[in-house]
Amino acid sequence: xxxxxxxxxxxxxxxxxxxxxxxxxxxxxxxxxxxxxxxxxxxxxxxxxxxxxxxxxxxxxxxxxxxxxxxxxxxxxxxxxxxxxxxxxxxxxxxxxxxxxxxxxxxxxxxxxxxxxxxxxxxxxxxxxxxxxxxxxxxxxxxxxxxxxxxxxxxxxxxxxxxxxxxxxxxxxxxxxxxxxxxxxxxxxxxxxxxxxxxxxxxxxxxxxxxxxxxxxxxxxxxxxxxxxxxxxxxxxxxxxxxxxxxxxxxxxxxxxxxxxxxxxxxxxxxxxxxxxxxxxxxxxxxxxxxxxxxxxxxxxxxxxxxxxxxxxxxxxxxxxxxxxxxxxxxxxxxxxxxxxxxxxxxxxxxxxxxxxxxxxxxxxxxxxxxxxxxxxxxxxxxxxxxxxxxxxxxxxxxxxxxxxxxxxxxxxxxxxxxxxxxxxxxxxxxxxxxxxxxxxxxxxxxxxxxxxxxxxxxxxxxxxxxxxxxxxxxxxxxxxxxxxxxxxxxxxxxxxxxxxxxxxxxxxxxxxx
Length: 514
Ligand code: B12
Known about the structure:
By secondary structure, the chain is α/β, with parallel strands linked by helices. Helices cover 41% and strands 16% of the residues.
């Protein structure tokens, strides 16, 4: 066994795949001891700052186990928590430990992050981190590793160039699950063991990147960091590689009941799709799967093939109800007509469809909010609706638009701001204008098929309800609670409702709408 010991720490998320990829690479390709720590768990709209005792548990473990390199992995909302964690590690252990930051936020804002970490990884970390640990093991200089920004003892920063994106995704070792080299700190307690191993849902990527650059999404920002010429941004694994991972996962995850493909959009060449459907059906036909789609790639022929192979549900971005808002605010290429066309297809397909919709957009006109109401009323096939509150992430083009339009300042951007702690998927306890409350209540009511549509139209036309949106919102929330209870019952009946999901989403006031 090599001498260098590493600990990868994921902040607020036991489903953090990034850190699992890194420890697999260090262990399987490097032969290093590489442990995993999940520091705090994510609760929807109820994210709490760590307790002092929890910071101490982490630093105690690092000191006790003698890790040489500690990696922190986080998204933008957790930037300030990362600063607090790193400060406490360095205060107690100084240069005995190298702290490397990575993940989406450090990739988007290395200039902010290098003030607090010894090193910052820009982009994919598998090869960069392995190179860093190999050099450390050999006692070589560490300041010229590609993808890494390195702050020298004199405070000088070396900004190494970002290397190509991982071109051959099949070359990456599979993420590891289980084993006693995994820890979690939450609720003031340190536990040993993999918190995810009993999960019923298996999340997997069959590709990395996305062909689109929607203004609110990280892809629009990463594409700017990885322009063409730095390897293709949108890359795919081979079908056999995906099947091999699912085979291994089934061995490691005894409760695995369904699969969720996290690819930002499940778009593949026809030949790949045909091979995938044949092999998935043959070996994993008993494991239903979900994927993400965009209206403009929805082809009935492909969807029929996927459904026959086991596709049960899809998550599709609508985001806005007018082509104006789609295009001008969100730089999206899909249209209302394409959404209605998919809805027609789904009358035959019967997929458990969840539409993503963004509200709380200061650049939306009343006519856009109106258009969304009418679109949702016009949809014929049953659907769920995932409502998101527009959140400004660093370097995304919607953030620049909001700042240029004077609706936001740098301090409103996640990282400095922590809106995500309290509002990600919409909950009715968030402050909104009366107009936004009125439309929110309507959006929550439209897909509840036990509510007469004629009554919803009357509400829409009534001045009384426009003037009393809080009352309407409470009514809509009650209808939503009925719906959520039936969804939870269905999941429990199918053996898919895990304690983790109840912990993450089970709060009445913070209840998500579906
Ligand atoms: C799975 C997922 C979740 C899961 C689990 C997330 C988690 N981290 O635990 C759940 C459902 C819990 C979740 C929740 C949230 N999510 Co989410 N989630 C995703 C999703 C779909 C996949 C993430 C992933 O697995 N990527 C694949 C891995 C391989 O990539 P990676 O994590 O970037 O890691 C690579 C590099 O970044 C780097 N790296 C990463 N960490 C480190 C560390 C070191 C030391 C080094 C050297 C390198 C390194 O190397 C890794 C391998 O190449 C992404 C969208 C996407 N497609 O990426 C959104 C996404 C990450 N989520 C997002 C958001 C906003 C959230 C929430 C904040 C929502 C909320 N308001 O509550 C929460 C926060 C939870 C959290 N802890 O981060 C945003 C983040 C935007 C931003 N700028 O931060 C994304 C990008 C969605 C989007 N389209 O905007 N999410």
